[in-house]
Amino acid sequence: MATLQLREATIDDLALLRRWDEAPQVVDADPNDDWAWETELLRRPDWRSQLIAEVDGRPIGFMEIADPVRADDAYWADWLAAHPDHPARVSRAIDIWIGEADALGQGHGTRMLEAALVRVFAVPGVAGVLLDPLASNMRARALYARLGFVDLGPWRFGDDDCRVLWLSGADWSQR
C-alpha cells in the first residue's frame, strides 16, 4: 500500500493550492470559499493546522483542522450559537479535499480523514469532530457515514447549503 503522510502546508505550496482551487472536483465540493492562500499560508495560529497529504511523496490533497470556537473567521459561530449545549465547544472542524483528479476513488480521502482523526483525538479533552459537506455531496457524505459521523441536519454557511456532521471521540474509539 502506498505511504500516506500529512505535512504542514507552507507558502511553497501556493501554486499547488491555487491550481487545486480550480480543479473541478474541488470547485464542486467547495464552490464559494476564498482561502486567501497568500495570507493564510504565512500564518500559524495555534487553533489551526493546514496540511498537505502526500502519497509516496506526491502531494494529492489538503486538509485544515481547526478549533471552531477559536477560529478568527467565525465560520462556525452561528451554528455554535444555535446549538449552545452541543459538545462542539471542545471539538475540531475539518475541511478536506483531493486536489489531484487521478488520486480520486483510490481510498486516499478515507486514509487522510482517518489520519486526521487519529491526530485530533490524541489531543486530551477533544470531544469530537465537525464536518460541513455540501448537502449535494453525496459521495463525501457516504464516506463520512462509513467512518461513523452522525448527520446533525442542514445548515447554510454563507452561500452553501450544507449538512453538519459530528463524530464523537467516544464513537471513534469504539471503532
TrEMBL record:
UniProt keywords, alphabetically: Acyltransferase, Transferase
Ranges for domain N-acetyltransferase: 4-171
Class of enzymatic activity (EC top level): transferase
Keyword Disulfide bond among record annotations: no
PROSITE patterns found in the cross-reference section: GNAT
GO molecular-function terms, A-Z: acyltransferase activity
EC number(s) from the headed UniProt entry: 2.3.1.-
Protein name, as recorded: GNAT family N-acetyltransferase
